[in-house]
C-alpha cells in the first residue's frame, strides 16, 4: 500500500507506510491517504468475527492494519499490536465494549485505556510504531506538542519508557481540569517533560509553531509531532469501528449507525474510511458542541473557519476547535480525489477568505447518499439534559463529549429513521469532567480505583514564560 497527499495532483508514485509514519504533513501541505481503500468482503468479515472472539482485539488490529502496512513484517506487526493493546493497559482482552442504553442506542466504550479517553486507542499503537521504526533507522525523535487536555496525556502515557522518544508537552498554566493536570504531572519519567506556559492554549500552539518554524533547530533536535493528522492514528481508529460493528451484529450484512462526538474530524474520519472499505455502516452521525464548524458544513455546504474570538470554551472542551484539521481528507474523497481542487480550496481559498462554499455542487448534493453523513449540534444545556436523561433511563453516566453524540443521535434517530443499532462512541470517562457531571446529576461519579488520589501525587512540571527562546533553551538542555 502506498500513500498520497491530498494536494498532490502529479499522479506520481506514493510513499510506503513507514515513510509517512514519522512525517506529519506532506511537504506540499496536504495530508496523507492510502491510494485506495482495501475492500472487505463477507468472508473477511466472517473470519474477523472469529479472530475477535477467539483471539481478542490485538489480533483483530493486526488483521486490519496489515491491509494498510506492508513494510513491517507480519510477525512484527502482530507483536506491536499485542503490546499496544495489552489487557493490562486496557483492562481486558476485548479492549472495547458495548453497553445498551435503551431505545436503540448503545454506548461503544473506547475509554478503558490509561488516560480514560479514546485518544489512547490510537496513541498506544503510535508509541509502539514510532519506537519500532526509530529502532530500525537508528534514530531518535523529540515529540513537541501543545495540549488542552486529552491528547497530551494520551501521548505521554504512550511514549513514556520508550528509549528513542522524548516528549515535551506544553499546557496552559492553571487551565486544565485538576484531574487532567494530575494525570499528566504525576508522570515520573525523565523522558516526559511537562511544561506549564504562562498563557492560554493558543499561546502554547504558537510556541510549537515557532519552534517548528526554525528549521535548523527542528532538524538538529529531531522535533516531531503526534497530532491528529498522523495517518497511523486514523488507521488505528478504523480497528475499533470494525470491532464494535462485530460486537453489535450477528450477520455479516447487518448495518449499524455510529454517532461520533467530533472536533478535529479524526475519529469520524476513521468511520468514513471503515465505511469506504465496505464495513456495513449505515449512517455516520457527526455531533459538535457550540463550536459547530463541521455541523454547519454538513447542513449548508459552507466550511467557515472560526477566529479565536469566535471559538467558545465549552463543557465538552476537547471539541473546542476553530477548524477541523482532518477535514481535508474527507473533502479529498468528496471531490472524487481531485487533488487540484483540494489545493484550490485549502491552500488558496481558505487562507484568503477563511471559508469555502460547496453548496450548489453535485458533490455536496450527493454527499449524504454517497457517504452517509448527518450532523447536529449540542449545547451546554443539551449536554446536561442528556447526561441526566441517560442516567435516569439506564443508570449509566456518560461524559459531556459522549453526551453530545448521544443527544444528537437520539434527536436525529426518529427524524431521519436511522438504522438500529446506533452506537454512540464514548470518547472519555465521566471522571475526567466531574464538574459537569455534578452540574448535571447533583452528585459526582465514583472514581475508578486506578485513578484514586492522583491529585496527591508529586507533580513534575516546569513553569515557562510564553517565550520561544526559553522553550528552545529547555529543549536543547541549556
Ligand atoms: C479528541 C476528543 C474528541 C474529538 O475527536 P476528534 O477526533 O478531534 O474529532 C472528542 N471527545 C474527546 C473526549 C476527545 O478527547
UniProtKB/TrEMBL annotation:
Keywords of this entry: Amino-acid biosynthesis, Lyase, Pyridoxal phosphate, Threonine biosynthesis
Leading EC class: lyase
One GO MF term: threonine synthase activity
Annotated pathway: Amino-acid biosynthesis; L-threonine biosynthesis; L-threonine from L-aspartate: step 5/5
EC number(s) on file: 4.2.3.1
Keyword Amino-acid biosynthesis: yes
Reactions performed catalytically: O-phospho-L-homoserine + H2O = L-threonine + phosphate
Cited InterPro entries: Ser/Thr_deHydtase_PyrdxlP-BS, Thr_synth_N, Thr_synth_N_sf, Thr_synthase-like, Threonine_Synthase, TrpB-like_PALP, TrpB-like_PALP_sf
Chain ranges of the Tryptophan synthase beta chain-like PALP domain: 102-340
Superkingdom: Bacteria
Occurrences of domain Threonine synthase N-terminal (ranges): 2-85
UniProt xrefs under Pfam families: PALP, THR4_C, Thr_synth_N
Cofactors demanded by this protein: pyridoxal 5'-phosphate
UniProt keyword Amino-acid biosynthesis present: yes
Function: Catalyzes the gamma-elimination of phosphate from L-phosphohomoserine and the beta-addition of water to produce L-threonine.
Cross-referenced NCBIfam families: thrC (TIGR00260)
Family note: Belongs to the threonine synthase family.
Protein name per its UniProtKB record: Threonine synthase
Organism: Propioniciclava soli
Gene that encodes it: thrC
